[in-house]
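Protein in question filed below.

…
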Amino acid sequence: MTDHGSTPERGATTEHGPTPARGAVAEGGAPDRRQRRLLIGLALLFFAPLGLAFYMYYGHGTWHPGGRVNAGELVEPARPLPALALPLLGSGTTDSNFLKGKWTLLYVEQGTCSQLCQKRLYDTRQVRLALDRDMNRVQRVFIGADDCCDAQFLQQQHPDLITIRATAAAAPLLALLPARGTAAAAEDSGAAEAPRIYLIDPLGNLMMSYAADAKPKGMLEDLKRLLRLSSIG
């Protein structure tokens, strides 16, 4: 006696044609799903450490290593900086992505590089050197006018410094930097408007700035913690 309620066996032929093998349709999309999962996993592997570093150090109000707070002032939200090829002080231009791939200490001087300006350049140099084996994960950038300073002095005292001319090409970048002043004005008036030092993450985001009276030791401690928490840059 024929059982009209039975299901045709896999691969059997019915009056409507061959029955598809069980799971054939589902299996067709499996490679695509695996590829998507792989791409998502790679993206998380790259960006998660930096995101976790920012969250644990800056976004989690109750957690700071050793109960300490950062010396710099957090820029909230972080500001993505434009990709620009900018003219160097001597000749040539930077790569358009020169602010990516490393942590960057940026200093901007709008006038003559006076004694205070030279001290800030010295401070950033010493902070970078003090990072020892992590030194190459950090770069220093200085933006100044054509006649801001002695090119020979910069070359001799700061050979690692990326020195950029403050032309109109740099305007989109400079416009995103908060509280910019001049060292000369600060020295004359005693005001706290001296140029700040800016910290840029390896993804090209402005995320912190340091006031004119910030101690180099504080900058160094901030960088050490960020480099320890981040696996990129």
Notes: Residues 58 and 107 are 23 Å apart (CA to CA).
